[in-house]
């Protein structure tokens, strides 16, 4: 016969286990119900955003590895398949993998993280490889925002993006340039390189990115973004046996966003605020042309530099941004018998004998083989933007300062500072929503050369050594078409044109845009390369291309692209009546594998 105490103890243990089991089950069911509610809330948010931007509701959305249809229940947890006519197949749900902690710390973080995806990535989750945008993330960036988290580290989600790129490049003139074309370097007829072409295959545009996101509260977002390719060329890099080109920073920045206040901060290396945006002014929504060339095309306004940026949105319709960006000055290189500078180590103004110091070789962690300008203040960009259903508009102002140290013969050393800048604007119009977009940008002012891919000079000098900003205008227009869900085509035209900044001394002109140089030798063919002191007036281009979305499924996506660019380069007319011109053709045939799409 069993003792009563032992029997009662056993019953107590059994009852406790049942209570614990029941409690755990109840907690699990409560969590499941909360997740379903959150999924329905996010689905409604997607519908709201799609409606705001004139998008249809007939395409499914991916959330946590499940395929959802707008206005419906989850359709199931498919694991593989293909995308056809706007249909997508859900990827395996990897977002629950954790390292070093739970998936999320609490319900507030879960809701905030979900809101992050909508906040930082305004574009709703469309088919995995979205070619409907005027600046498709799969081509111009890495598409990382549209992807689910691969795993989480504590309360931080980790998203991976990028692609493997193989580009075949042909140019009708030999520039000895990689997959970033030096548009301003097309040679005149006096150079033997003007009479031969070049073929250059490259995998340097292969790109990788990581997006880290966490949510202190439901209204706040902390993000870190790193993007790299292989566009670096160390002193030992060559193409003889191994193409040892090095990784480099494309972008590396942190952001803070508060959706309640409509306040956003960015610090690090990113696209300049002068770059156009598809909507809003948030990072990773830049209006980049879907071209292959890593140096864009002449007429596009951009830099990609360290900066700190402050953005305020007003109802996510009106936007105001202020950015303080790392400056550099590209001074005009001068040659010829009466050039501005003598070209000596202590560069001297030929007309006055004033000695100049305006750049230094790098040291520390800077490139010792490169020259860095003497900077007095950051470039300042102030931009306003407006989002409407048919279009996105931007207008901005740019302020810059240039500095040089000058010493007149037998005089003291003086610091010379000049102010420069300009005004610009961008527009994106959905001419036929989902089928055709128009984009345009313009920047006009003085000392703005480095903001264009042609890299026309920012400034020359006055006789006393003061930097003299050069007038310039940069602009482009483009059409982006989407005849089918798997095809994107584009047509762009752009121009960069520099004005004159000269003075006369000793009977000669000095500065940039002079018209008394002897330039007839620029058109004389010489195998040794004759002299040509021509100064570039205008770069103009016409670009046409397209991308074909070949394959997509659980294995990723494959794309192929073809692009043709015609460039025309015109110099200022010389004193002998010669007007040197040149031009060239560039063709890209590119293949990309996007494993995360």
Question: Which structural class matches the secondary elements?
Answer: mainly beta
Shape summary = globular
What count of helical segments does DSSP give?
3
Uncertain segments: 11-15, 18-23, 56-127
Instruction: Give the fraction of residues assigned to helices.
Output: 10-25%
Number of strands: 28
- Specify the biggest β-sheet: 16 strands, antiparallel, barrel
Strand content: 35-45%
Under CATH, the homologous superfamily reads Porin
CATH class category name: Mainly Beta
Explain this structure:
Keywords: Signal. This is Porin. It comes from Komagataeibacter diospyri. The chain is mainly beta and about 600 residues long. It has one domain (about 135-235, about 245-595): Porin, CATH 2.40.160.10. Helices cover about 10% and strands about 40% of the residues. The protein is built from 3 helices and 28 strands. The protein has helices spanning about 5-50, 105-120, 135-140, and strands at about 60-65, 65-70, 100, 150-155, 155-170, 200, 205-215, 220-230, 245-260, 265-270, 305-315, 320-325, 355, 360, 370-375, 380-385, 390-405, 415-430, 435-445, 460, 465-470, 470-485, 485-500, 500-505, 510, 535-555, 555-570, 580-595. It has a 16-stranded antiparallel beta barrel. A two-stranded antiparallel sheet has the order 1-2. Strands 14-15 form a two-stranded antiparallel sheet. Strand 18 (about 415-430) and strand 19 form a beta hairpin. Helix 1 (about 5-50) packs parallel to helix 2. The longest helix is centred in the N-terminal third of the chain and has 49 residues, at about 5-50. It is globular, with a radius of gyration of 29 Å. The chain starts with a helix and ends with a strand. Residues about 10-15, about 20-25 and about 55-125 have low confidence and may be disordered.
